[in-house]
Amino acid sequence: MKQAVSRLAPVLPLLTDLGERFTTAGHELALVGGPVRDAFLGRTPPDLDFTTSASPDETEAILRGWGTATWDVGRDFGTIGAVRRESGSETTVEVTTYRADAYDGVTRKPVVAFGESLEEDLVRRDFTVNAMALRLPSLEFVDPHGGLADLGARRLRTPSAPEVSFGDDPLRMMRAVRFVAQLGLAPAPEVLAAMREMASTIEIVSAERIRDELVKLLLAPAPRAGLELLAESGLAAHVLPELPALKLEVDEHHRHKDVYVHSLIVLDQAIALEGPADGPADSVPGPDLWLRLAALLHDIGKPATRRFEPGGGVSFHHHEVVGAKLTAKRLKALRFDKETVKAVARLVELHLRFHGYGEGQWTDSAVRRYVTDAGPLLQRLHRLTRADCTTRNVRKAQRLSRTYDELEARIEELMAAEELAAVRPELDGNEIAEVLGIRPGPVLGRAYKHLLAVRLDEGPIGPEAAAERLRSWWAEQPESQG
Questions:
Q1: Residue 73: which H helix or E strand, with range?
Q2: How far apart are the first and last CA of the chain?
Q3: What is the pTM of this model?
Q4: Euclidean distance between CA atoms 288 and 284, whole angstroms
């Protein structure tokens, strides 16, 4: 307990001050949930959440005397926020009136009811490790559901029966998956059983809320355990069905990999290739959502493209193209932003490009197209491609690594010589229009693309030679015959 309180030392004066203010006004106040849990885990809490016997109006009046500003986070739900700025620092708090909610079982919106006691408030919380509190200003530890013991045992339980808890709010099952990844906990047997039984009820939760939990899961230090629980519990079948679909039957002769396990290994390896926040310009600082999504989903086109070839072989022709389309469809359904959808789908589409050029047989033209097609995603593509090597054949793995080393060296050489990152035709739109005597429009666009292809295939040839190529191309176009 002393060690946990020591983690709160930086904010202890604030906790004491707030506690005394509420007590003086005749109310109870307690630090609750994540901040208490994190203190016992040896981490300084990033946020401060409180619960109180005071009504929202009473809370607001007290916080107005404490903070620089207050605001209505959700008065109907009992939550008031405040910020205090002094000596160049800023502290934000949220205080919620004791709650004793009821749910209708159809939506996850509670019928808000304020509670009478701290214990009544704690029993409604999602997991026992989040149902611990410190009364203020006395620092009395309150743990009616054994959250501290569960934290020590790395066990995830619910304060009430899991069927009741998940029935009240199915999103708690997604939170369970996230806590497995973030905190290294394991669900108690009754929690896992309830998740399996009630997995389909997640469908009443909005796509946006599911997406937010999935993002937090993927950005956790070790998301694999959470993703395995997502699939094992049956939740993935409803929120990310492409993941369990990767569990293709592995033939007895093992002529193809277990795609599901392979994808999780690729995710692990991609995470290992992320860099620190202050890394060099060519690094990918972690945690990187686009890279992690692409690593997880890069092979989701395989189930739809699997073919058993004569002689016992197995093929997945064009699975990267199919996978890119499936990726975009799933991410759109989960309400990801357009930039994320486009970037992750593009990485999935390009993840096999390296293997299409054999072993080191890269022409300058192929290198230019690789860089141009990847665009700003190039560094992520480097890491995805390297992570996609999961062979146990050490010599093969070393050969692939050397080949990719050579490709990266070629890219650096050409980028230095030709500024590949900003490759453009050697004539701009106005110059093309002048050479051909045409107006802006679709024909000019085609001419521009032709010169870009020339630039990618042959490198810089000079404006005069580019104009000659343009005239030769134009002579073969039906529009030039007019």
A1: strand 69-74
A2: 88
A3: 0.82
A4: 7
